[in-house]
Amino acid sequence: MNWYEKYLSIYEKPFSEVPQEIIDKTHDQLAALQSDNPLISIIIVAYNEEKRLQACLWSLSETKCKYPVEFIGVDNESKDRTAEIYQKSGIPFYTEHQHTCGYARQCGLNQAKGKYSMCIDSDTLYPPQYIEIMVENLMKPGIAAVAAMWSFYPNEEHSSFQLKMYEFIRDIYIRIQNINRPELSVRGLAFGYETANAMKEGYRVEILRGEDGSMALSLKKYGKIKFVFDRRCRVITGYGSLKESSIFKAIWNRLKQYGVSRLFYKTDHYKDAEDNFLKTKS
Predict the structure, then answer these.
(1) Which helix (H) or strand (E) covers residue 46, if one does?
(2) Cβ pair 112, 195 in contact under 8 A
(3) DSSP strands (E only) in 164-267
(4) How far apart, in whole angstroms, are the C-alpha atoms of residue 139 and residue 134?
(5) Which of 53, 104, 145, 227 is the S-S candidate for 76 at Cβ 3.0 to 4.6 Å?
(6) In sequence order, which residues have a C-beta less than 8 Å from that of residue 169 and are 6 or more positions away?
(7) At residue 191, does pLDDT exceed 70?
(8) Residue 90 confidence (pLDDT) above 80
(9) How much of the chain, in percent, has pLDDT values that exceed 70?
(10) The pLDDT of residue 25 is above 70
């Protein structure tokens, strides 16, 4: 049995269908982990994630970490029961009324007390040793930030074999991309850094996507962006970024979109597409 399978028993289910014993267990285990003097701040962001947040919190509640941690929730003004789930988990949470991932991540960062901060996405499941291994890599000399890899859980459209094939090819691409442009491989669902440095740089809040890679690019002035390929750090997420039912089509679409030329040179500047900017009310 894979470590994440039990969490899938409530993943994508309405909160009303989650057994009370899981809600209570998650609350009690998070309370036991929560520290008033944390080394690591775990920042969980959510927007309309009623069907996935409880599974994410359940996985985090079973964290095995020898370092003191705190959990902070951010609700990006959800319209479903996201805030209620945070409330019943017992962890402190904050409502961010401005709707971009940048605003939500910055809201959590502003509340962080730990020397290190870890980004957590509420539609993602985290293995028990994830936090400890990530922060131990972050503590190494010359490391400004750490990132981990992600996998998708098998479903009716994507078999385990197909997903492994897709991830094998994608992981090779990312390993090559990391040589010159590690910031392009960073995803906010598995990203950590020193809190003070991130506070100096701040998240970009005017863009709809790419706030994670932009932060990684800014943090390169403080040291290396290290990818942790340890399988114990590989998180499991949903299909938000893999919409194709055909794995071969997914691979082809990404090769067309990203190409290979960018793998061979570095850059310190990226131009945002016009449709990536937050539209302000006139």
Answers:
(1) strand 40-46
(2) yes
(3) 191-194, 224-228, 235-237
(4) 9
(5) 104
(6) 251
(7) yes
(8) yes
(9) 92
(10) yes
Q: What is the DSSP letter of 52?
A: T
List the one residue out of 73, 103, 276 whose CA is nearest residue 202: 103
For the chain, give the percent of residues with pLDDT over 90. 75
pTM: 0.92
Sign of the CA dihedral 179, 183, 185, 187? positive
Q: What is residue 282's predicted lDDT score, i.e. its pLDDT?
A: 43
The half-sphere exposure of 116 on its side-chain side, counting CA atoms within 13 A, is 23
d(CA 173, CA 200): 31
Q: How many CA atoms, within 13 angstroms, populate the side-chain half-sphere of residue 37?
A: 0
Give CA–CA dist 41/48, Å, rounded: 23
Do residues 254 and 243 make contact, with C-beta atoms less than 8 angstroms apart?
no
